[in-house]
Amino acid sequence: MEAKCIRQTGIPHTTRLFADYLYDFDRVSPYFLRNPHDPEVFGKAASEVEFPASRRAALVQALRRQNGDSDALSRLSEHGTVAVVTGQQVGLFSGPAYTIYKALTAAKLAKQLSSTGVPAVPVFWLATEDHDLEEVNHTWVFDTSHRAIALRAATKGKAQTPVGRIKLEDPPLGALREALGDFPFGGDIVSLVESTLTEGTTFGASFYGLLKALLGRFGFLFLDPLDEGIRAIAAPLLVNALDSAPELSRQILARNSELTAAQYHAQVHFENETSLFFRLDGEERKALKRRNGQYSGKDVRLSAEQLRDAPE
Length: 312
Known about the structure:
Layout: H1 16-23, H2 25-28, H3 41-47, H4 53-67, H5 71-76, E1 82-89, H6 98-115, E2 120-127, H7 133-136, E3 138-142, E4 148-152, H8 173-180, H9 186-195, H10 203-215, E5 221-223, H11 228-243, H12 245-261, E6 274-281, E7 284-291, E8 294-297, E9 300-303, H13 304-309
Parallel strand pairs: 1-2, 2-5
Antiparallel strand pairs: 3-4, 6-7, 7-8, 8-9
Helix pairs in contact: 4-11, 8-9
């Protein structure tokens, strides 16, 4: 095997903003708090983290339910330990290749920080709350003839259901086996994938099981934001965002205007009535619009006070 390194700009559809972020950071520095190319910046950022002991204890308890005990969890429980967080939608068979690349990058950064005296553990955020099934129900692999093979699950979920809760039905294991069978270790990979697909398993559980098997030796902790304990920990942050909603909206709209004026693309689709919140109603995720201090969506209308009383 021959390894080659190519510039990100050699990959089709690389955005101008991302290219400048990587190779001409001065152009985009006004939009970022720190320069990620400065080797000292991560240690400085870690020193500014404020994480109360009670919140850390609650987080460790929630992560223990999800991950079990581990050396990484023990380290995270200690004062001063920081988390290097990455994440991805819970896609079929781990989703796109950059899922793994992002994870390995987080693990490497955590190791580098620890070597400089800043204890750190890598954390993978399982984006189970995302509702776009069409983005996660398929993936691509190469076969031994270097052909790109599309693999798609036949799962049909209700619209707006968090994908992490959708059962993974009829996964394309046969097509995966056919594509990878003649590769060295291809059979091992298929067996590993099969081991994550017990009857009734969800996209979230399958994704978690596969990544834990692949990345466990790097000391990862996995975080599912649909967990009630995690939602309770995040509640004060959501209340703060609710109280600051008008100013946050103003700043997002202003930044989008700045980016488009500089010939970059807006980073998030945001309108005057867009809010930062959605409501989980049973298995359905309902986006909320903000109008005159009220929050409304499909079959739901809430005041800011009602949201504040039950932010999680």
